[in-house]
Every structure is written in structure tokens, then in C-alpha cells.
Specification:
By secondary structure, the chain is α/β, with parallel strands linked by helices. It contains 13 helices and 10 strands. The chain is globular and about 60 Å long.
Length: 334
């Protein structure tokens, strides 16, 4: 420090002033641009916790963008999930945000606590990502074979305020039931699985990615079975909340699953702020992802769940203009 002071004291005043100006300018740039995440060629993708499947999904997208989109520096950020992603997106601390559709809709409409009275109307979808399968499991002899059989049964739901709690309410509504027609018990994921194993509940409801270790354990080690969904029921569920889409869980997703089954799915969203991402950038992002789709799948097989058709399905918030242009060019959007 003394050496630095001595060096400065011997500098010509003009030279010192120039360095001081440069330092001040760089400081302003750092604070107003870099620290706030406003660098136009830097794309941070908000995902989930490191142990979640969104994190490697977002990491693969970031890798493809940085490798093939000229001038782009991209990375995936581990977060607490949808709500934090949307808050960070609005603050421009991330530039792309993965989100569960029901929560994204609540933010868009200003019905989420952190957006109460201040709806996030600048939210735009650029593509639907992967499917979360709404999985309802029971055990042989429970008296539950199809979803309509849950009347009078004990349902393992999620904690108050959780996505699972909302999903259970929707499942009941589509079956023409209310909470008074069943007994609801709230559990976290681990306790809910244990309750099903111990037969303290008749069914357990949760959202899982394909090939979940939790579901594999329940099916193969503890004899759990899937509750069945009819086409008619899946249509009713979509009417209750159009973020649910009829989906197919393919045979082989689990060792005990020998044939395809119909199941409700939620298509997660990759959201951006329309004031940050312009039409050209969004178009180029999508063009890059789908041009190198096979390479992305080789890195992370969950990218195989994304197709031009699934990516472009209308889903709770408007699509970005750049996405509309891209999907129309590909013939999957009118």
C-alpha cells in the first residue's frame, strides 16, 4: 500500500486524473451493467437446485448457445425454482427462466404473492421445455384402480401452498369431487412415499420427471401401481386448468412399466422478459437449439422430450414474437 501511495504521489497530475476517470467509468459500467446482468451478450438461465432435473437441462441449453451462437456467453444458474426464477428475471439478473406453468400464470396475472398487485405482463414464453408427469400411485387392494375411485379415500397431498396441493385440487375437480369427498393428508415427498408404503394413505400424488428414482423404488421394491386416467378424464382436467396436457408415459420409463400409459402432464416453460430479449435474439436462440438438437440430446437425454410440436403448444402465457416467427417458419404454428 505504501508503494502504491508513493507511485501515485510521483505521477503527473494529468496522468493520475486519467486513471481516476478510467476507474470511475469502469466502476459505473460494472455496477450498472455487469452486476445487474445487463450485458447484451450474456445469457444466464435460471433453473432449479443442482439436484433437480431443470439444472442439467438448462446447463445443456447454455452449452449449446455458447458453442454455436456467435458472441454469446451463457450459463445455467442454480435457484430455488420457478418463483425465484421469475423474480430474478424481472430484475434482469437472469435472462431466461424455467418455470412450472401454473406458477408462471399466477405471476403473469399478479396473483402470486411476490407479484400481488403488480402483474408480470412482460413475461413471454419462448418454448415449452420438458414434461412433468402428474403421477398418482396406489397399491393392490386399495380399492383405487382409476382416478374416479378416490372418493372416500385417503389422499397423500403436498404441504400447504405447494404445487402438489394445487394439483390435487385440480384432480378432484376433474373427477367431479371436492375436498369433502376425500381425506387429505399433507406430506413432503419422502414422508408421502413412506405413507404409501405403510398403507397409511390410499394414493400418493406428486409431479415427477420420467424415470424418477422415487417412483422406480415404489414400483419395483414396494409393489406400487399407477392409477389409471381415461381420455375423457384427461380432457376434463384440461378444462379445469389448460396447463395440463394429455401425455404418454412410455413403456420402459420404469422397470415395472411394460406398456405405455396415459397420464396428465405439465409442460414447463422457458420464459423471458420481452423488454430484455428482442425478436432477433429469441429467434436465434431457438434456431440454435433446434439446429443442434441431436447434440443436445447426446449431452442430456431429457432434451429428447422436446420437439418442435411440444415446444410450440400454447401454454398459459403469450409466446414471444421471436418464437412465433420461428415456429411459423417451421410450420408448427399458424
Amino acid at each position: 500500500m505504501k508503494g502504491l501511495k508513493k507511485f501515485i504521489s510521483k505521477m503527473p497530475l494529468t496522468g493520475f486524473l486519467w486513471i481516476l476517470v478510467l476507474v470511475m467509468v469502469f466502476g459505473v459500467i460494472s455496477n450498472s451493467v455487469f452486476a445487474q446482468g445487463q450485458v447484451s451478450n450474456f445469457i444466464r438461465i435460471g433453473t432449479s437446485g443442482i439436484g433437480g432435473t431443470w439444472y442439467p437441462f438448462g446447463g445443456t441449453v447454455a452449452l449449446i448457445l455458447e458453442k454455436y451462437l456467435p458472441g454469446i456467453i451463457s450459463s445455467a444458474s442454480a435457484t430455488a425454482g420457478t418463483i425465484e426464477n421469475l423474480v430474478l428475471l424481472r430484475q434482469n439478473k437472469i435472462q431466461m427462466a424455467m418455470g412450472e406453468p401454473q406458477t408462471v400464470r399466477l405471476a403473469y396475472n399478479g396473483e402470486l404473492d411476490v407479484f400481488k398487485g403488480d402483474p408480470y405482463k412482460d413475461l413471454r414464453n419462448i418454448f415449452n421445455t420438458k414434461v412433468t408427469f402428474i403421477t398418482v400411485l396406489t397399491y393392490p387392494g386399495s380399492g383405487v384402480e382409476k382416478i374416479e375411485d378416490i372418493r372416500g379415500k385417503i389422499i397423500g397431498s403436498g404441504p400447504p401452498g405447494s404445487a402438489v396441493e394445487i394439483e390435487v385440487k385440480h384432480l378432484l375437480a376433474a373427477a367431479g369431487l371436492t375436498e369433502k369427498d376425500v381425506e387429505l393428508r399433507a406430506f413432503d415427498r419422502t414422508d408421502r412415499s413412506d405413507a404409501l408404503i405403510d398403507k397409511r394413505i390410499h394414493v400418493a400424488v406428486d409431479g415427477f420427471d420420467r424415470g424418477s428414482a422415487v417412483v422406480e423404488d415404489l414400483l419395483s421394491l414396494h409393489g406400487a401401481v399407477f392409477v389409471k386416467f381415461s381420455d375423457e378424464y384427461l380432457e376434463k382436467l384440461h378444462e379445469v386448468d389448460d396447463s395440463y396436457v394429455p401425455s404418454i408415459l412410455p413403456a420402459g420409463s420404469y422397470s415395472a412399466l411394460k406398456e405405455d400409459i396415459k397420464i396428465p402432464g405439465l409442460l414447463s416453460i422457458m420464459a423471458v422478459d420481452k423488454n430484455v430479449m428482442d425478436e432477433e435474439m429469441v429467434y436465434n436462440i431457438l434456431n440454435t437449439i433446434f439446429e443442434h438438437h441431436e447434440e443436445a440430446i447426446a449431452i442430456n437425454k431429457t432434451l429428447g422430450e422436446v420437439s418442435l410440436q411440444s415446444a410450440s403448444v400454447e401454454n398459459v402465457i403469450p409466446f414471444h414474437e421471436g418464437a412465433i416467427k420461428f415456429f411459423k417458419e417451421k410450420g408448427v404454428m399458424k
